[in-house]
Amino acid sequence: MLEVSHINRSFGDRHVLRDVSFTVPPGKLTGFVGGNGAGKTTTMRIILGVLSADSGVVTLNGERLTEDSRRIFGYMPEERGLYPKMKVREQVVYLARLHGLSASDATRNATDLLERLGLGERLEDTVESLSLGNQQRAQIAAALVHDPDVLVLDEPFSGLDPIAVEVVLGVLKERAASGVPVLFSSHQLDIVERLCDEVVVIADGVIRAAGPREQLRDEHSSNLTELLLDGDAGWLREMPGVSVVDFDGGYALFDAEDEPARQRVLQRAVTQGGVLGFTRQRPTLAEIFTEVVR
Q1: Which pLDDT tens digit goes with each residue over 231-240?
Q2: CA 72 → CA 65, 120, 181, 263, distances in Å?
Q3: What are the start and end residues of each CATH 3.30.70.250 domain in the chain?
Q4: Within 10 Å of residue 157's Cβ, how many Cβ atoms?
Q5: Residues in the chain with pLDDT values less than 70
Q6: What is the CATH number of domain 220-282?
Q7: In the chain, which segments carry CATH 3.40.50.300?
Q8: What is the pLDDT of residue 116?
């Protein structure tokens, strides 16, 4: 497990990280979300050792990270860092060799990854000849080519079309399934909500929410319940302890004064027959984000 504990960082008089703590479990995709200037990139650079923290510690499986232990990390910065004049496969092989892979292993890994990421026909093209989306795929291959034990990716889905997102996601899920902790930042909340097992929300350098995605949705859910019937739900207006918020024939959104009142609605609905749905209204990640950062 990758663990960030009580990290603080200032640039001059500006305190950009304040007691930042969260975990990235093995075998999970963890989304790190926040607005511009929230502290995502600074945190990730501290994890990678590119920046130092004023205080706090980053550990992997309980051991404090060192320059050597960070060699097992795969990192993709938000800024494109590939050499534009180099050929795509040549570039990825070169980076694999820097991580100590043999020429044959580096070539095999690079070719396999680039093909998986949809760049099999562009192996001998220069990086600068690729579209921005394809450059992003090549950069992801560069982060993965040495089979890292930990992945830290800064905005990996930026500039990718929906098909490319699915391709990249498939590769990342394979890595997570093998036990690799995967942390990636994104401002695309819809993608994070759909893809991630865990979510960390940061704003103004402070962690505002962190944990399993579904747990966060439960914790921030309202008391409103949606009822869907194969018939008319008009009788709901007569139920004691219930306030109808929205109503449309067989659909109703209501607020119950307590759980017994909510259960009485369910019992009545079952008696009436044709219950198609009875669920507590749960927020989207965008709604949770708006709630915790304001």
Answers
A1: 888 899 999 9
A2: 11, 26, 12, 52
A3: 220-282
A4: 22
A5: none
A6: 3.30.70.250
A7: 2-218
A8: 94
List the structure tokens of 165.
């997102």
The structure tokens listed for 225 are 């319940």
Q: Which of 250, 254, 215 is nearest to 230 (CA)?
A: 250
How far, in Å, CA of 62 to CA of 154, rounded? 24
Ordered strands of the 242-248 beta sheet: 242-248, 251-256, 224-229, 275-280
pTM listed for this prediction? 0.83
CATH 3.40.50.300 assigned to domain 2-218? The reply is yes
CB contact set of 62 (below 8 Å; sequence gap of 6+): 3
pLDDT of residue 38: 92
What is the spatial distance between Cα 71 and Cα 158, in angstroms, rounded to a whole number?
Answer: 25
Residue with token string 């009485």 = 264
C-alpha distances (whole Å) from 33 to each of 39, 96, 203 are 10, 29, 9
SS3 state of residue 16: strand
For helices 132-144 and 162-177, angle between their N-to-C axes, nearest 10 degrees: 10
Query: What whole-number distance in Å separates Cα of residue 261 and Cα of residue 263?
Result: 5
